[in-house]
TrEMBL record, chain A:
Transmembrane segments: 29-52, 78-97, 104-122, 128-152, 164-183, 216-236, 271-291, 348-367
Protein's cellular compartments: Cell membrane
Stored Pfam families: BPD_transp_2
Protein name as catalogued: ABC transporter permease
Listed CDD domains: TM_PBP1_transp_TpRbsC_like (cd06580)
Lineage, uppermost ranks: Archaea, Methanobacteriati, Methanobacteriota, Stenosarchaea group, Halobacteria
Bilayer disposition of the protein: Multi-pass membrane protein
Keyword set, alphabetical order: Cell membrane, Membrane, Transmembrane, Transmembrane helix
Record's keyword annotation contains Membrane: yes
GO CC annotation terms, alphabetical: plasma membrane
The keyword Iron appears for this protein: no
UniProtKB/TrEMBL annotation, chain B:
Signal sequence extent: none
GO molecular function: ATP binding
This protein's GO CC annotations: plasma membrane
Keyword Heme: no
Keywords: ATP-binding, Cell membrane, Membrane, Nucleotide-binding, Repeat, Translocase, Transport
Residue stretches of biased makeup (Acidic residues): 512-528
Membrane topology qualifier: Peripheral membrane protein
Protein known as: ABC transporter ATP-binding protein
Compartments it resides in: Cell membrane
UniProtKB/TrEMBL annotation, chain C:
Membrane topology term: Multi-pass membrane protein
Transmembrane regions listed in the UniProt entry: 12-35, 47-64, 76-96, 102-125, 132-154, 188-205, 235-255, 275-298, 319-335
Cell location: Cell membrane
Protein name from the UniProt record: ABC transporter permease
UniProt xrefs under InterPro entries: ABC_transp_permease
Amino acid sequence: MSDADSGRVRDRLDALAERALDMTVVERFALAVASTALALFIGLLVVAASGYDPVAFLGYIFEGSFGDSNATARTLKFGTLAILTGVAVAIAFRAGVFNIGVQGQFVVGGFVTVVTILWLAPLLPESAVGGVALMLLGTGAGVLAGGAYAAFPGVLKAYAGANEIITTIMLNFIAVGAVGYLVEGPFRGEGNRAPNTARLPEYVSLPQVVFDSPDFSLVGFGVALVVVVGVAVVMARTRFGYDMVTSGYQLSAAAYSGVDAKRTVVSTMTFSGMVAGVAGAVFAIMVQGYYSDPGGIATYGFDAIAVSLLAANNPLGVVPAGLLFGGLDSAGTHIGINSDVPVQLIDGIIGLVVLFVAIPELFRMAARRTGLGGESR
Amino acid sequence: MTPDAQPPAVELRGITKRFGDVVANDGVDFTLERGTVHALLGENGSGKTTLMSVLYGLYEKDAGTVVVDGEPREFDSPRDAMAAGVGMIHQHFQLVEPMTVLQNVVLGHEPTERGLVDESTARADVTDICRRYDFDVDDRLDEKVRDLDLGARQRVEIVKSLYRGAEVVVLDEPTAVLTPQEVDRLFDVMEELTAAGRSLIFITHKLDEALTAADHVTVLRDGEAIDTVDADATTEQELARMMVGREIVTERRPRSTDPGRPMLTVEDLHVVGDRGREQVRGVEFTVREGEILGIAGVQGNGQSELVEAITGLRSVASGTVTFDDRDITRMGRRGRIEAGVAYIPEDRQTEGLVQEYDLVKNALLGNQTVEPFVDGRFVDWASVRSHAESIVEEYDVQPPTADARAGSLSGGNQQKFIVGREIEHDPDVMVAAHPTRGVDIGSIEFIHDRLAALRDAGLAIVFVSSKLEEIRALSDRIAVMYEGEFVETVDPDGVTDEDLGLLMAGRRPDGLDAESDGSALEEEGVES
Amino acid sequence: MSLSSYASRTRYRLGGGIAFVVAVLLALVALDVPLRAILTVGFAERSLRAASPIALAAVGGLYAEKSGVFNIGLEGFMIFGAVTTAAMAFVLGGDSPGQPDLWVGIVGAVVFCTLLSVVFATLLVRFRGNQIVAGLAVWFIGLGFGPFIAVLLWGNRNSPGLVSVRQVSIPVLSEIPVLGPVLFETSPLVWLALLVAVAAWVVLFRTKYGYWLQAAGENPEALDTAGIDVARVRFAAVVFSGALAGLGGAVLFAHAGSFNGTGDTMVNGRGWIAIVAYLFGNYNPLGAAGAAVLFGGLENLQIQFQTAGIAFPNKLMDLFPYVAVIAVLTVWGSTRMPSAVGEPYESED
């Protein structure tokens, strides 16, 4: 290799670093704020153009995300799911594996959790202890299922060269369709008119700690934070994490250091899918209490990609990023109930936030043009 | 029109190019006469490619003038250079692999008829060029580029630049990827081109190639043009002196006194390369404790694949690798690291270091299973940090801080860090692939000292280099590799540079005998 | 990979597709399924209708990916195409728009989606956005704003019955048994889709623009040094993909006659199936169109099964394309994606 070669490698690495990694925390925060603000602004324009009152609409958004304890609980609920799925994505992206299939792993994990609990419930005492045991077992099963469902495309990538972006997207649809079929047919709860599984027993639920909300428990949020810290420790302080992250930065250097690239792809996917399984279990136990046709379940696993990106694929950064998305989701629910403005608008605005998060360069350029600290590097 | 009446094809005057604080070209003058081959000779990092990138519009110069065909020019992009008749053949071919040869040649300049690409015109034009310069690609126009070997791809690149009307073609280290036969063909092609009035700039760091193929030679060193000489009126020694800036003192280090037991044995090893071609064919050798086996050869003769097979980065087609009486042929990389095979990799930028990590994190690279850095599953970053700091201090890494990002270090300092890390592994076998490539002279001596000290401490060392002087200076035995085989294993003190050169070209000099245990010298007289 | 192995792999895949169809037919015969009741002329004609939106979006997506940009937002553009056509037809013709209103609506939808994809392409190519996330965002935006427009116009996520495209029957040709009614007495939009697929093939493999497109996706540097602006080629390809996906959505509406915005909207994954189709067709526009016909047939097989009295779960049948793609990627080696897909390209100047 000549000086020309190494120069090129250096250039490429520099460009990479410049673009993706060396954003400061402040810059990331600014990006999040700018993306949200711009998306909201466009949303408000649409609101005004459709003949509604944009000021009132804006009021609804704040009210709906943090306005009262109900709103806050709802924000934390959506935030919990965004954080968990966001961490799942962050693990994979950090290791350079593009797991777009978190939604599918989330669905499979949640469904298996419910089925496991329903199946084991008759075998265990109907008590709080039994409930905790069932939740733990169900979550364990969901985590395994999510991990296995992610390991599959990992194996296909490592040993058959199948592009994981495409296979995981396909597996999302397969998960949604297959689980949809199962809840509609074989696993439909007795006497259910809707295509849902039977309800989980009453005693299988997370305790209310602060908020009085049927589908949010601070315990669930706590689980999310514990997972975040756990993942952060694994990534930063363990050999496994070092091997994964090194593979993500420079596959050839990882191979040089003795990392088995193929096995790392599979274990990364498995780890990512397991966290998605936790998200699925929390959704099933805390939010739903049964499992419904996943075609109607929100696309947490897709939003998660934006969450992770916003957090620079850093597990700790996923917490604020997830709460931002939780707040927007929550505002959407609020507006759906209280406002004339069609609630679909909020979905569109979230889409815009996702879009802008994907284009940091846009804001960087704008900042440079206006002289707002664009040269901070 | 007489040639004398025409201005030079290219004239560079006082070209200066800086990258930050580094001056890559410092007021370089360079004149390419029409219809000649002009070699640009220099070691890696001497500024050859930078200078040509300025000419080709890839880099913006900081000072100086580019004159093409008598007219001052400002090239903002390769497109501009191309329009002025300057083409460049990079080491990375600019070819679209799934497209055919014909499509690649005409890309961007397609003749069209009624909206469609006029294939017959394109074919006629390209065939015409091939015939005129005696290229063999005209009967392969419908093959996809991905099915061609590197030599053929290079000829496609040349045809492409001719098709685009290049009068001046810059060839950036064109021989690096070629087999010797292909090199000969390339030189024939170059001759045809100049005979037809085209002018060529030939970037190389190989003395013999410069003398063989070029009419004029300009030597660059540290970004400055040292001198321009006629190829007929100079010698390799003179060029070498200009390149290095001093007489090459092949300072012979003391040889190994007492090799111990065999540490690494390779038997009938066959290894397949990336392109599906067998790159190592039946190599056999043994390295003993306290011995340096030098592997010499022109780049691309299977050294990389051999090294990767020894270190566990590439699987072996057949044959065995034995380490300290254990068969490690099927062992993975990590197993070999743990067993005690350290490796200074050929490519420090992509393999030896993670550019985005600081040196602390890089100190763990390869040490992931070594105590005390890792205790079970958890990394003890405090001990990794102190390890990194001790490497930085002991191996004189600049800047002297473990918090520096690896990518921000100069090549020499990166290499010193890697050498330090690998030595501190406390290995039994050290495989060093081109450990001084692109490294400043001070660091080279430092690295040589370290390797010699390791040998004296009883390690078995495999030392791969294409630089004859350092191979001779350091090795206890030299194996010359050519086309995937060891042509000969010789005693560095009993062989001349000429003989080594012949061996590296795959030819066995008369009177040279195989060397088995350092006794070639005595036997030589007997043989002849 | 050698030329021959490449060719044989394409053959494998084609063979695989045919083998699958034959196997299904044989299974049906073996199980004594009333084939005649399933493979009707109406079924063939409906399958082609169902295939056209998918084929159009697939050709668009294929162009974008060939140029090096993975346009994952096809689904979103299709939603915009469908809702815009419906909205324009409604605005022009009220509750009962006529054929001209519909056609203006289709053209309007294509124009609108072209504008949207100009913005999208700018963000991706000029501002080097993350293709996956931005593409998903387009889908979300479509899922949000599509039904939003419907609610604004009709007070409901679904439009009332508006207008569907009128069948065209070519005299004489339509008299040919079987082929006649399938090909010559059908929606003109089916012909349009076929025409687009053929034209896309010609442009891709026989014109200089096609060469540039392929080079932009495989080795942008080679194209750049040939004097062609990579960013412009990619920009054009992305805009084209958005416009064609929009046309696909418009065709979907024109065949259905009303807009449905519940759940995943009436597009319901067809944009994703379009990606599947061009992967299945190995980045060949004609192959993609063929795969679209296969998937269009699958979509209608359900109805045929019902009329023939066979029960087979809908949801599982819908999964076939996705499973098939994974099988293709795994069994027959990876589909060779253009090597520079997903990497923003920066010219050195």
